[in-house]
Amino acid sequence: MSTLIQTPPKTREPKTQPKVGIVSLGCPKALVDSERIITRLRAEGYAIAPDYEGADLVLVNTCGFLDSARDESLEAIGEAIEANGKVIVTGCLGAEPEVIQKAHPKVLAVTGPHQYEQVMDAVHTHLTPPANAYTDLVPETGLKLTPRHYSYLKISEGCNNRCSFCIIPKLRGDLVSRPIHHVLTEAEQLVKAGVNELLVISQDTSAYGLDVKYAPQTWKGEAYETRFLDLARGLGSLGAWVRMHYVYPYPHVDKVIPLMAEGAILPYLDIPFQHASANVLKAMKRPAKQDRVLERIQQWRRDVPGMTIRSTFIVGFPGETEEDFEILLDFIREAKIDRAGCFKYENVEHAESRLLEGHLPEEVKEERWHRFMALQAEISAERAAAQIGTVQDVIIDGPGEEPGEILARSKADAPEIDGVVYLSGATDVSAGDIVSVRVTDADEYDLYAEPA
Ligand code: SF4
């Protein structure tokens, strides 16, 4: 069953206020879209309903990346229609309205990803906006769906690459970078509002600004170009943890490493390598040359000891031979990829890779996935064991399940996708505090610690 988003009411809401229920599916980028829509809705005086029964209309923000995500989206739409009846669909799957209309003809309207205006138009058509806008209900930073102490910061929409397994450019279009002074202003407001960790997201963070030819801007009297390095420099000046996601290993990434060494941004890079074999990467049409990647990673690690590299990989891509797969295993072993997500290749509808030769049987994909995960667990456990006895800063997320247990994350742990630090014996700490701890134990992915 899909869960509707809950937002904390800032003041008591009038009974007559029209209420919209929101179901948000998919990745952090979709979550940021939902936040923007909610912010607009609240700014116009709509309330957010926490359940289907209390909603006058339900908005489903869908994901269409993998077949499994499309199925989940269609299921969530069906559930909302059954429980409420009035449903508007937006998000990635909204780029294919015919699929949605065919499965659910009762849907009131369908809009595509980041079509905020069209979503609002559809809401206005089917649920009359209130006479007065309750603008005071909206905090300056908009409404966040993530806990208050961390926030995703979306720097661009769309992608100029054409990876053969991916339909995101079809769904979200080409790269459109946000002006750097807007991004930095938003980040500064978030930090002022209590956010202690900024998670930079996009489809291709290192391509930031390419579409606007790295346009120069001024922010707080200083010159910034719309590019990855200046973005890292500006964000690094705000005093919060800054975590970079979806970075491709273009050569200019090397210039950001000194900012990690100085402590301006976190020593953490999320680089979706997807594979390591030149044959498979070519068939995947991946951006950024992977030559010398291993050497560069080793150099980064020398420059920034303790740096964390997270990545995602696809196993069982069409044409992947046992030798290609061994190259991949050697790569994660030698590069010591600290965190890795691994997906079995899915034959996504409309993806170019469907037409490739050499599709592999499911058992082969399954077997390779298990081998990958077993090796990754070993690498991760070795890394975790090496942390025992170290003293490091962690950010507090909140109480754990056990009495007295606190959940925290180290600089190596992004929320939701990486490990956690189980902290015991800490008193007087609140979510968002950054405290120094001594690591006392570790398992494959998580650490155990006490106050230092
Ligand atoms: S870089 Fe490739 S995988 Fe990532 S969004 Fe662009 S096309 Fe898709």
Automatic annotation (TrEMBL):
GO terms for cellular component: cytosol; ribosome. Its EC number is 2.8.4.4. The keyword Transferase applies. It is an enzyme of class 2 (transferase). Residues 145-382 form the Radical SAM core domain. Binds 2 [4Fe-4S] clusters. One cluster is coordinated with 3 cysteines and an exchangeable S-adenosyl-L-methionine. The keyword Ribonucleoprotein applies. One of its GO terms (biological process) is tRNA modification. Keywords: 4Fe-4S, Cytoplasm, Iron, Iron-sulfur, Metal-binding, Ribonucleoprotein, Ribosomal protein, S-adenosyl-L-methionine, Transferase. Its cofactor is [4Fe-4S] cluster. Belongs to the methylthiotransferase family. RimO subfamily. This is Ribosomal protein uS12 methylthiotransferase RimO.
